[in-house]
Write a structure and sequence with these properties.
15% strand
């Protein structure tokens, strides 16, 4: 399975990546296995459909869902679970969900192709980690080795930037693209791949699960502390038709962040098992490495700058501009909930 996924994109044209997802108002014919995942909304204007990933950058939206934090505002958050990471972007771009907790890099592919989507808040920061097997201690040691990651993901951008900083490129390593977070972690721990870039809690699992494994980069050494990983993005039709529901979702994420910061054990108890298939011990260690940060306004330029890497990789034709962001909903939510915002430990202001 690892070898199949590793060669699945061997002749892949990056510029065609998820081309069917990056649509404006056009109708998209999706595979039946994706279309069947979308159920009728419970009540018009109150149910917000969302996709999400599997890492700790999603903890805020997991807590919001598990604890019904948006329900007080009359909003039901409904998850649409997707089979693979790529299909998260596909469904969001096709308009089958309203919002998505998504890596900023995947968002860029949609924005660049003209999809009506905007970044409206943050999800999680840091936590993109390059893990290598015994004997690999530097970028130079990766030369000729197999390296696992995901297509158009922040987990591809970090190793690209890491190698570039060392005067190397993807041509110097054997890149393997896999489909899901558990699959990537299992491939490394089973010895099928020499190195990977992964998120938490999987990165911690990989270090603990393969003897001699070590961390080459946690991203902080390259980008500095607090760098963005995933963001909350929404479709413009939702922003225009139901701004109150959008603010309710953002408020629920702020409440989730406050709860996780004040009682991480309770937050882990609510999410380890249902969402994170790992031990409580590993999750406890991982949580500190990839915290929730809803207010990521100070990451605007960082995300824009990563667009250069996405362009060099061939995923986007141009670097995103500030028009890709609409922080007005976050700012309105902060203004309407000053006490919640003041209680947050991690934020831009």
């Amino acid at each position: 399975m690892c070898d199949r996924d590793g060669h699945f994109f061997a002749s892949f044209n990056r510029r065609n990546f998820l081309k069917t997802a990056a649509v404006g108002a056009a109708t998209v014919a999706l595979p039946s296995h994706l279309a069947s995942l979308v159920r009728p909304a419970h009540a018009a204007g109150t149910t917000i459909r969302a996709t999400h990933g599997t890492g700790f950058c999603n903890m805020g939206i997991f807590l919001a869902k598990e604890r019904g934090l948006a329900e007080a505002e009359g909003v039901d958050l409904e998850f649409v679970v997707t089979p693979s990471n790529a299909e998260i972007t596909t469904m969001f771009g096709a308009g089958l969900v309203d919002i998505s907790m998504i890596p900023y890099s995947n968002f860029m592919t949609l924005y660049d192709a003209g999809a009506p989507v905007r970044i409206i808040a943050g999800g999680g920061v840091q936590g993109c980690i390059i893990v290598a097997r015994d004997g690999i201690k530097s970028a130079e040691d990766l030369r000729g080795k197999s390296f696992g990651t995901f297509q158009a993901d922040t987990l591809e951008v970090l190793p690209y930037d890491y190698l570039k900083a060392a005067g190397m490129s993807f041509a110097d390593v054997d890149i393997r693209y896999l489909n899901t977070s558990p699959e990537l972690a299992q491939a490394f721990m089973a010895g099928a791949i020499d190195a990977i870039c992964h998120i938490e809690p999987y990165a911690t699992q990989c270090v603990q699960g393969r003897e001699g494994a070590s961390v080459l980069s946690d991203g902080i050494d390259l980008y500095g502390p607090g760098y963005s990983d995933c963001v909350l993005a929404a479709r413009i039709p939702l922003l225009e038709s139901n701004p109150d529901a959008v603010k309710a979702v953002i408020k629920s994420l702020m409440e989730a962040q406050a709860q996780a910061e004040s009682d991480i054990e309770s937050a882990l108890a609510a999410t380890v098992g249902p969402y994170y298939k790992t031990t409580l011990e590993a999750a406890r260690d991982a949580a500190s490495k990839q915290p929730i940060v809803v207010d990521q306004r100070n990451q605007t330029q960082f995300i824009i700058d990563r667009g250069n890497s996405m362009k060099e990789l061939g995923y986007v034709a141009s670097v995103p501009t500030e028009d890709a962001f609409d922080w007005s909903f976050l700012e309105a939510t902060i203004a309407e909930n000053p006490d919640i915002y003041a209680s947050l430990k991690r934020k831009s202001a």
